[in-house]
Write the structure tokens for this entry.
Amino acid sequence: MKLMFFNDFRFGVVRGDDVVDVTSTVQSVPHAGPHDLIAGVIEQFDTLRPRIEDAAKAGKGVPVGSVQIRPPLPRPRNIACMAVNYMEDGTRSEPAPINAFTKSPNAIIGPGDTMVLPDAPATVFEGEAELAVVIGKRAKNVKAADAMAHVFGYVNFIDGSARGLPPAGNVFFQMKSRDTFAPIGPYIATADEIADPHKLQVKLWNNGTLMQNFNTDDMAHRIPRCIEWVSAIHTLDPGDILATGTNHRGLNAFQGGDQIELETEGLGRLTIKVSDPLRRSWSRETRLERANKGLEGLTPQLTGKYARVA
């Protein structure tokens, strides 16, 4: 099943090219807003699923293209993101030590929304195409062998990053947790929709040019291990997000005016815009293209505030 919020956060099931409003089937879930409604639906899904399915079959759909799609998880309690979790197409000789960081729930935006680049002296702004896991039931000290039973589903995720902020070593919080730096959507695909989350093609386009194109079979620490490791540090609740990392070779500068599209097999296409009030510019090249030219370092800023003068 594919679940989404749309318009004024109506709860819907995607059926082909349509979405069916099934809000009435989940009104019994205690909630103050859509953020805890979806968490409650996920937590009670085994009970709610039959009536949601019946309503989705019987209801009249409207074209998905005619509605405003909202983020399917408007404010998850936790957003845990795996760091350096790909083998980079075999260019790494061994996996990096398992590691992660958190993002603020205020970083969440949805389809059609805008990632805003802040007034900060970042070397470059990038967005990482990622498969994200949606947690289905409370996970604390979960063993890898039992971890997949805690997965509710999957969602597209872009990990916005402000690279190179000073001081050196003061990295992940100010780089990753900016407002608007966690676009997700357009819907959550329940786990039964995805045969193998470790065999999905992930593609990201910047202004129509394919930049990232990799398969989740390149993942270094797989989902069960990630859940085991994170849940040993802090509890994961229903509706929490665990982003699984990216293959960095296609990373490229996000800049004002860009249209970004992310599509993971089975998860639909997430489209966002990028705004930069400072109108800065960077070279249009991926990390792999720079490496193939023998260039070192990240994509250089060309113009605007904080540009380094040669």
